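quick q for whoever's on today - can somebody do inverse folding on this one?? i tried earlier but teh output was garbage lol. tokens:
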């Protein structure tokens, strides 16, 4: 079936006596022409890549711009103390920062649904996996749940910051994570939809304004907001709190908001934080560094051509 409506997926699951994630998995099997085992294996690769990215993070690397690096390490150290929001929330924040940094530092990550929003899903899933000793097969089911949610958002709205602002990236990732959390905690399909709707509503209208056009500031820290928002939305849904606006309508609304956002707020680095005095200064500095590097590269190339024997 087409993954273009949350309600249609739920209806199919109810009609066939299956879980939401099973409908998503079977759709993947049909679309890619693979077996159930192959589909599960592919998702397992993504899960293992998420875990590996978390395990190899040290916080010692810095991005080329120098804007990002080390924050995840600082938060991991702080989490071991007495954080205000408790150890688990601090671990979630640390994981989101670590993944976002890894992306900026050109490390291997899982785009879920995009590289800029890569920290949200692992931030909520990995700490829960370790804390509650969740079986890996359950984690794969949660990832299929999240991917189905992401597919619906991509079809009805968008997941690209350039097309719909940061609400489309961090917002979508947060909604996916919220739905996965509700599933892992034994919530109903209806509660999952409410969590998705509330997570997306909370970030509706979030602009994409990367400083100097880099997916670093404020992108990395927005992964934190997406992760914590997902937990809040999931807990509200599990408590019985409902979204007054149905989930598919919320997704449609996000798409409309994204289309109406001025171009300055859609990954162009022309508005928002990118247009602040500091944001402009960073862009100017980096442009100067790039120009200096190009000049040095050209001089070096000329020297090698003019004095090849010295170069050898």
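ok took a stab at it. sequence:
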């Amino acid at each position: 079936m087409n993954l273009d409506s949350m309600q249609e997926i739920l209806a199919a699951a109810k009609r066939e006596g299956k879980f939401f994630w099973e409908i998503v998995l079977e759709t993947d099997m049909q679309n890619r022409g693979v077996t159930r085992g192959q589909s599960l294996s592919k998702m397992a690769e993504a899960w293992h890549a998420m875990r590996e990215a978390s395990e190899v993070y040290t916080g010692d690397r810095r991005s080329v711009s120098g804007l990002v690096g080390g924050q995840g390490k600082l938060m991991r150290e702080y989490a071991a103390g007495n954080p205000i929001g408790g150890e688990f929330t601090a671990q979630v924040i640390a994981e989101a920062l670590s993944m976002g940094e890894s992306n900026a530092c050109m490390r291997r990550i899982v785009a879920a649904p995009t590289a800029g929003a890569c920290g949200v899903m692992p931030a909520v899933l990995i700490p829960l996996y370790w804390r509650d000793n969740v079986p890996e097969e359950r984690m794969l089911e949660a990832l299929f749940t999240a991917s189905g949610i992401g597919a619906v958002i991509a079809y009805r709205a968008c997941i690209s910051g350039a097309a719909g602002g940061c609400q489309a990236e961090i917002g979508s990732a947060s909604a996916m994570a919220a739905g996965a959390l509700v599933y892992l905690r034994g919530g109903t399909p209806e509660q999952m939809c409410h969590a998705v709707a509330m997570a997306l509503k909370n970030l509706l209208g979030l602009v994409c304004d990367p400083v100097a056009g880099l997916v670093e500031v404020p992108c990395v820290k927005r992964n934190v907001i997406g992760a914590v928002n997902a937990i809040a939305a999931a807990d509200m849904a599990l408590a019985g709190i409902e979204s007054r606006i149905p989930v598919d309508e919320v997704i449609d609304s996000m798409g409309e908001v994204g289309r109406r956002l001025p171009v300055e707020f859609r990954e162009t680095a022309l508005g928002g934080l990118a247009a602040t005095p500091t944001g402009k200064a960073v862009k100017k500095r980096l442009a100067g560094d790039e120009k200096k590097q190009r000049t040095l590269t050209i001089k070096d190339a000329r020297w090698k051509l003019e004095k090849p024997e010295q170069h050898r």
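fwiw The mean pLDDT is 95. also Residues 6-275 form a domain with the 2-methylcitrate dehydratase PrpD fold (CATH 1.10.4100). so keep that in mind when u check it
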